[in-house]
Amino acid sequence: MELTVVMPCLNEAETVETCVRKALACMREHGIDGEVVIADNGSTDGSQQLARDAGARVVHVDEKGYGNALMGGIRAARGRYVMMGDADDSYDFTGLLPFVEQLRDGADLVMGNRFKGGIAPGAMPPLHRYLGNPVLSFVGRLFFPSKIGDFHCGLRGFRRDSILRLGLQTGGMEFASEMVVKSTLQGLDVREVPTTLSPDGRSRPPHLRSWRDGWRHLRFLLLYSPRWLFFIPGLALMIIGLVAGTALTFGPVMVGELAFDVDTLVGASAMVVIGFQAVLFALFTKVYAAEEGFLPPDRRVKRLVDVITLEKGLILGGLLAIAGLVGLVASLMHWGIRSFGELDPRESLRLVVPSATALIMSFQTIFAALFISILGIRRTRETPIDVAASAAEEAAEAVSKDTSMAKSADDAEEGRIGSR
């Protein structure tokens, strides 16, 4: 079978029959060998029977959520290609051919773009059309090397085997973003075709919750991009803190009528420490995600980890600790010169703050080197090749055993014949 159209369904009695009939009619018209699968997520309005009467196959998905329903339908699909779309009659199931043609041409994922194809009046709330979708799609293109203009279009087609290999995990609306992000990170052939969006045919409100589901999409994009979540903000904080702290260590800095002094130096020190910690978290996340298969390996991170070994990290941390201790000794000497009496904070803090900062960063460096070494400990994993080899060996042993038993039985039979 070439194509399976999967529609998630939760109480769509008003529209599911229309959607199924449109999809089947499109496949008949263009000679596509296919089926429609309704992934029912617990409907109580008779949607299941309406879908069956229209010619669909219904599979029940107990685990709630948009992503869970779709994954249940995708796993149950019999087609080489899968088209997914909502069962609310907002997507054009009569226009499946452009998607199928791109898939036949070798694409792994074909996204619909509603902004290029046309959005009918009233089909998309203004908040989604002019803010939510454009902003989240821009963030997706910024964080990941993707050219997709409509990250959240629900009408899309893909090779079933390619998508199943991605190991998609999210069960909610962010499933739409996860599919695009992981396909892009894994280097799949992702394309886009124009599609239309019409007002849905339901009388009840949609399942989508704008702010909640928008945040879930943004959260997913951030968590899958340690560079933008940790590294870039952390590096910016570090640079600003280092520049400001270095200037203030030698005395006050005047900018027009504003005077920046030791109070700002303390703030600059905090920026350096927080920024450094964020950069380390980016490194931790990259190493862990690559080891566990959540993100593809990053060659630059691997080279960095190979260069900065545990021993080098301990040495660097030790040097920072020595620098911090030297500064603290110098501050004690400065105090001694004043007979251990009252000090001018504008003088003493210029020694204490940088020294304390160096000490804090020394321990951060040492702990980071130890933690990265722990993350780098490889577990023995049984690969599919290992499983196949083991199965082949077991089969060969079984055949050998059967052959040996058969030979023994033949020898025994010959012996009995000879004795007669």
Describe the structure.
This protein is an alpha/beta fold and 420 residues long. The protein has three domains: 3-223, Spore Coat Polysaccharide Biosynthesis Protein SpsA, Chain A, CATH 3.90.550.10; 226-375, no CATH class; 382-420. The protein has helices at 16-29, 47-54, 66-76, 97-104, 114-117, 126-143, 160-164, 175-185, 210-223, 226-249, 262-292, 299-307, 310-337, 345-375, 384-419, and strands at residues 3-9, 34-40, 57-60, 81-84, 109-113, 156-159, 190-194, 253-255, 258-260. A seven-stranded mixed beta sheet has the order 3-2-1-4-6-5-7. A two-stranded antiparallel ribbon has the order 8-9. Helix 6 (126-143) packs parallel to helix 9 (210-223). The longest helix has 36 residues, at 384-419. It is elongated, with a radius of gyration of 31 Å. The model has no long low-confidence stretch (mean pLDDT 86). Residues 4-163 form the Glycosyltransferase 2-like domain.
